[in-house]
Amino acid sequence: MFVLKKRKYNWLDMWLMPFRCAPVSTVGVTAQKLITALANVFQVIVVAEFLDGAIQAVASRHFDSGIMVWFVLMLLIVSWKRISYHVGNLFTDHVTMHGNEQIAMELTRKRDRMEYYLLEDPKIEELSNRLSGKLEYNLHWNLQWFLNLFAINIPRIVGVLLIMSGYVWWLSLVVLALTVPLFIFSLKSGKKVYQAFEEAAAYERRHKYLFSVLTGRETTEERSLFGYTGQVNEQWHQQFECAVKQDIKSEMLFMGNSLRGTTINGVLSAVVVLIMIPLTVSGRLTAGVFISLVTSMYDLIDIMGNSTAKAVNRVAMAQEYMKDFTTFAALPEREDATESVDADAAGNDRPTVMEGQVQGRETAGTAAMGEYQKQRRIPELKELEFRHVTFRYPGSDVDILKDFSMKLENGRHYAIVGENGAGKTTLIKLLTGLYREYEGEILYNGMEMRSFSREEWFRIFSCVFQDFARYYLSVEENICLGMGGMDFGEAESPERKRERISRMEGAAKQLDIHDYLCGLKHGYETRLGKLDEDSVDLSGGQWQRVAMARALMNDAPLLLLDEPTAALDPISESRLYEEFGEISRNRTTIFISHRLGSIRLADHIFLLKDGCVREQGSHEELMGLHGIYANMYETQQSWYTEDKAEETESIAAAAMV
Question: What single DSSP character describes residue 374?
């Protein structure tokens, strides 16, 4: 099993990483390569003996049955070389499949453990994409080239030179002296080719992206509306032209190197043959040995001057790839507290709830949770307080939150409002533990939240974000993912499935989308999105209700909605918030919005401006202040007047007639 560790990764990991992912198959493909190398070495002796026996039989006109042994061995070697590639592919495909799965999982786990500010760093995102973007390709070819070098080329070169030294010791030294400079030359020129390909890759990434803009489904409407095809096409053409020029440059370098290598190989082979002819004439080499060695010399010189240089070049490329692994593995991770919310390690009273009992109540559908919440202890919410919190993003010298304080109590509905840039998004990132480096305190039941482990912190919240995920999975999976730790496979017992389905349908009914989902072709098993022919894409409002149903499936103490309805019109947003407020009546909720009409029913409203709370209170209290909130609400009030909206639509419709 491969585990990503903070250590230095190097070229040896080209083999070690696949071995840890699939040891048996990695050993199998390694053995296949070694047997192939030994078969090629042994072939020199077999061919020489067979040819000498055949020549002797012709000269003496007497058939020696011993020649059949060499003939059979030659057939076996040829047969193995024919099937060897396919045998190796079976092992390699197995290694690639399991390696891709395990390494991708480790990269994902690492990303999950990383500090959130790193995930927002473009350089880190690019590093992550380099590692995972062509993971399957790199895993496959890194193993192949490693084995080509160390399991085939080097054993084959050493073996042939040893055989040659057994006949004429100094001839092997001559061959080695002639081919080593060729190898060094090929290696240096190979690096130049790789650099040229790298330069071309940058242009290629750009022109492929622009091509997707010109042809992709997601940009169809705006292409037609804005008519930007000509401008983008010109940029695409420029990038494509640059990429082609770089490709031509790299191909010319490669062709030049190949031509020079072929010429030098021919000259070296001719020199070796000219040296061997007098030795054969003098009787030091037999005709069979001469023919066999000459044939192997051509292959050997090509291997040392071409194949081995390519393999070493690939190992050098893999070394750069492994440097990325080293850098990625060394990225800092969240430091979770060792104490548990469920433990009383510090001697503090840390109340918890069991099996869905949150905040001293039984939530709707708690009984249906059954064993899903078994052994899952969720800390009961009594009070959540920001106390003089100041925060700035890493690398910035601007405070986003400034001496920020607010207090939330169990069972109440809160709303946080403010203009864009007021600090609402930053507040959510701190509240949910995405950023932990702040001044001041965030207290949960009087305890600093940074003392919680990451998992404990995340279990406190069930969230619906503005950019909520639209999973191209079944309706059932889209909603039930909110429960966490779910098993939708055959391992799920019938009783658990009934409990889960009951809870899922209850959440959908509460959000008034159950009947629509049941009316789909396959009901809750209908796949959503655009991937399959039978899949169904929902409207924006329907997707939002599915996302909210997913949040309801989670029995976290605090429910957070971060402008998930921003794409809806104000009236629809207000209605949906009102429905959701009724559904979550007994839960502590936080609504984040810059549109005020949708949060009038909140028990308490915090208005943020310039990173701190400027006004707070109920809707009526804030309106009575005649301050910032009252001015904002009066400006937006017409958005939520349905009669006014209908009147506007009627006027617009009449104008179109």
Answer: T
In terms of domains, do 507 and 619 share one?
Answer: yes
Does residue 358 lie within any of the structural domains? no
Decide if 588 contacts 411 (C-beta within 8 A): yes
Residue 570's pLDDT is: 65
Given pLDDT bands bounded at 50, 70 and 90, which one contains residue 494?
Answer: confident
Residues 514 and 408 in one domain: yes
Verify that 34 and 81 share a domain, yes or no. yes
Q: Look up the domain containing 27 and give its range.
A: 13-168+285-329
Say how many CA atoms lie within 13 Å of 146 toward its Cβ.
23
What per-residue confidence (pLDDT) applies to 351?
40
* Distance between CA atoms of residues 633 and 635, nearest Å: 5
Within-domain flag for 184: no
Amino acid at 507: A
Burial of 272 (0-12, 13-18, 19+ CB in 10 A): buried
pLDDT band at 648 (very low <50, low <70, confident <90, very high): very low
- Number of domains present in the structure of the chain: 2
542 shares its domain with 614: yes
> What is the distance between the alpha carbons of residues 630 and 433, in angstroms, rounded to a whole number?
32
Q: Which residue in 568, 560, 521, 503 sits closest to 542, CA to CA?
A: 568
Q: pLDDT over 70 for what percent of the chain?
A: 78
Contact indicator for 134, 321 with CB cutoff of 8 Å: no
Domain check: are 324 and 440 in the same one?
no
Looking at the structure, tell me whether residues 317 and 411 fall in a common domain: no
Those residues with Cβ within 8 angstroms of residue 650's Cβ, 6 or more apart along the chain or in another chain: none
pLDDT tens track for 245-271: 877 876 777 677 666 666 766 777 777
DSSP 143: H
In this structure, is residue 352 part of a structural domain? no
Task: Report which of residues 138 and 225 the model is more confident about.
Answer: 138
Clarify whether residues 321 and 397 are in a common domain.
Answer: no
- 62 and 156 within one domain: yes
Tell me: the pLDDT tens digits for 260-314? 666 766 777 777 778 888 888 888 888 888 888 888 777 776 776 667 767 777 7
Residue 338 within a domain:
no
The dihedrals phi and psi of 92, each to the nearest 5 degrees, come to -65, -40
DSSP state of 423: S
Length of the chain: 657
